[in-house]
Amino acid sequence: MRRYQKYLLVMTGAVLFAYAGAAGTAVYGQTDGRLTGQAMVGINGKGETGPGIGLKDINTEASDKEQELMGNIPAASETDSLILVVGQGEADISLSYHTKDDKGIWTEEFVTAGRYGKNGATGDKKEGDKKTPLGTYRFTMAFGVKENPGSILPYHQLTDTDYWVDDPGSSHYNQLVDSSSTKKDWKSAEHMAAMVPFYNYGLALDYNSDRVPGKGSAIFLHCMNGAADTGTSGCVKVSEEYMKKLVTSVDEETRIVIVSDISQLEQE
């Protein structure tokens, strides 16, 4: 494997998690070749320690390889903040948040574990396939059942009448609607305020912004419900601790890049 590819496995926090009860315990060093010994934030949102070398201790070498990683992501030239989601098999993911300073130097702020689609990810998303759309996206809004924690993006605190329509036959497909003031023409929709703790905080991706019927709807980055949480219907989710950090950090220029395998970032 090429040197930078080995590094990408480390920098995206590709760590296998074995779960002991609800808390979850990080296991370092998978034997199938996908992962390397590297400390990573636990899926329960708490910092884990282990025999791996911490990113902040690698100093210059880590910085050089961080720039190499970002050099493999076209969207990195368009923004100064980027979220990278990398599939780890089945519904498991690693999510890392990166920022660029005024000198053009990238820094990985954190990496944590999470989940995406129950059936993995796809480049051809369909409504109801329980897959997460691959690609690069922006965020259109922040939302949550909880009060605004200090969002940069416009923040909508969810009410009991908020629904996100997922019926391809509706004129409001892939839109947030207030059912108290919108004439109902949908057969199905997500009752947003009822999705606790998942929607305690969330960010809406601009996926299918043209609202093409059947191409998929309600693709969010949102909270998960502990270590035993399963995959999603298409969203990406991490612990509430990290969702709160992201809601208060990202802006309209932030990109989220979703790949099912780190090799998709390989330069040819």
UniProtKB/TrEMBL annotation:
Pathway: Cell wall biogenesis; peptidoglycan biosynthesis
Sections of the chain in a coiled coil: none
Pfam families: YkuD
Keyword Transferase attached: yes
Sorted UniProt keywords: Cell shape, Cell wall biogenesis/degradation, Peptidoglycan synthesis, Signal, Transferase
CDD domains on file: YkuD_like
InterPro entries membership: LD_TPept_cat_dom (IPR005490), Transpep_catalytic_dom (IPR038063)
Annotated signal peptide: 1-22
L,D-TPase catalytic domain: residues covered: 84-259
Listed SUPFAM superfamilies: L,D-transpeptidase catalytic domain-like
This protein's record includes keyword Methyltransferase: no
Catalytic residues, chain numbering: H222, C235
Name of the protein in its database record: L,D-transpeptidase family protein
Biological source species: Hungatella hominis
